[in-house]
Amino acid sequence: MEAAGTTLVWLRDDLRIADHAALTAAVDHAARSGTAVGSVVAVYVLDDASEGIRPLGGATRWWLHHALTALADDLAALGIPLLLRLGDPAVIVPELAEVLEVDRVHWTRRYGGPERAVDARIKEMLTSAGFAAHSYPGHLLHEPWTVQTRSGGPYKVFTPFWRELRSRDQDPPLPVPEPLSSIRSARAWLADLGIATGDLAEWGLLPTALDWAGGLRDAWNPTETAAHSLLADFLADRVDDYPRGQDLPAENGTSRLSPYLRFGQISPRQVWDAVHRTALGEGAETYLSEIGWREFCWHLLFHFPDMPHSNLRPQFDAYPWRTAAEAPEEFRAWTQGRTGFGLVDAGQRELWATGHMHNRVRMASASLLVKNLGIHWREGEAWFWDTLVDADAASNPANWQWVAGCGADAAPYFRIFNPERQRERFDPGDVYTRRWVPEYGTDDYPAPIVDLKASRADALAAYAALK
Q1: Could you tell me which CATH class the domain 140-174+225-303 is placed in?
Q2: Where does the Photolyase/cryptochrome alpha/beta domain lie (predicted)?
Q3: Ordered DSSP codes for 82-103
C-alpha cells in the first residue's frame, strides 16, 4: 500500500492528545498529503540503553503502564496506532522511519542533558538518512534559552524569574487544538508490513511478586481525561482558598496535577490558559506561581545538567553529610515512617501507600533527613524518585537541593524545619497524622530517633564551617 505522507511521532513525556504540537502537525501533514492510509504512526520507546538516562522508579513505572494503555485508546480513536518498543531509541527510531518509509519524524523537546544528547544524535542520524526531523515545544511555558537575566545568564533565584515570567503573561502560546480524525487507521497497513504494535505487559512495569499498588489504584486515574477533570474541579471549588489550603495536608486543598504534568497528560500551557479563563485573585496567582516553580526547576536543569547529582553551590561539597549506608537504621526509620515525628511519619506512609506526599510534608520530611539526621540529600532524592508518581528529573533534585540549602534559590541555607512545629501549625488536631499513623500518641508509637535541638545545633555549626 502507498504510504506517502507518513509521519512517525516519537512520544516521551507528552502522553496526551490535546495541546500536542508534534501530533497535530503530523495529522495536518497527513491531511495535506491527501493520503488516507498509513499517514500517522506513534511510537513510545522505553529507553533502557542510552547513556545517562535515569531508569524510572517503581511508582512512575506503574503510572506509565496505565498512561500508555489509555493513550493507545485515545490515539486509536484518531486512526493512529501506538507502537511500543523497549531498547535504544537511537536504533529503534531510525529503523522504524526506514521500515515505514516516513516523510518525517516529530517529537516534543526535552531539556535534561542526557536527553538532549540523545535527541541531537537521533536528529543527525535521521537527517543524514534523508528524513525530516522536527521538534516542537510543549513541556514548558517558555523555552529555557528565551528567559535570561539582563546580563544574559540564567536565573538562579525564583522571585526575579517569576517576575520575568509574569511580565510575559500573554506570551505563552495558547494550547494547540486537538487534532481532528481526518485520517483512516494505519493498523491494517502496519499488519501488511508485519509490524507488531508491541505488548505492554512484557515490559514488567507493574508489581508482580508483591502487589504494592493497591493504594495507587485507589488514589489515581492516570488518564488525560482525569487530569482535566481534576483541574476543572480545583478551579471550581478550591482555587480561591489555595493560599491557605495548599499548606494543610488534612484537606483536599491542592490540584493534584503534578503526576499528570510529569507525564505530559496535561500541559502547563493548558493549566495556565484554564486558570486565566476561569479564575482571578490571590488564589489563582498563588497557584500559577507553583506552575512557575516547576518551570524554574526545568530551566535550572537545562542550564545546570549536573543538578540531579551535584550541588549547585560547590562549597557544599565539603558538607559532612552521611550516606544511607553509614546511617542504615536512621535512614530505614525515615523511609518506613517510624522516626517518632508524627507529621514526617504520616507523610512517608502516605507516600508508600499512594505514591504521593503533600508538599508541606515533603519539606518537613526532607529537612529532618538532611539537617537533623545529617543524611545526604541525594539519598532522599533517590527514595522519592522510586516512590513518587510525580518524580521528574528537574523538580525532584531541585526541591531537595532547596531544602538542603545547596541549590540555586536564595532560601537561607540555615533554615531548618522543626517537624513538631510544622505538625502543630499545619495539622492542628493531628487529623492528617492520625490518618496515616493510627498509633500516634500511644505506647506503640516509637520515640524520636534524634534530638531536634542538638541536631539543629550540629547542622548550623557544619553550615557555618562552610564559610
Answers
A1: mainly alpha
A2: 5-141
A3: EEEEEE-HHHHHHHHHHHHT-S
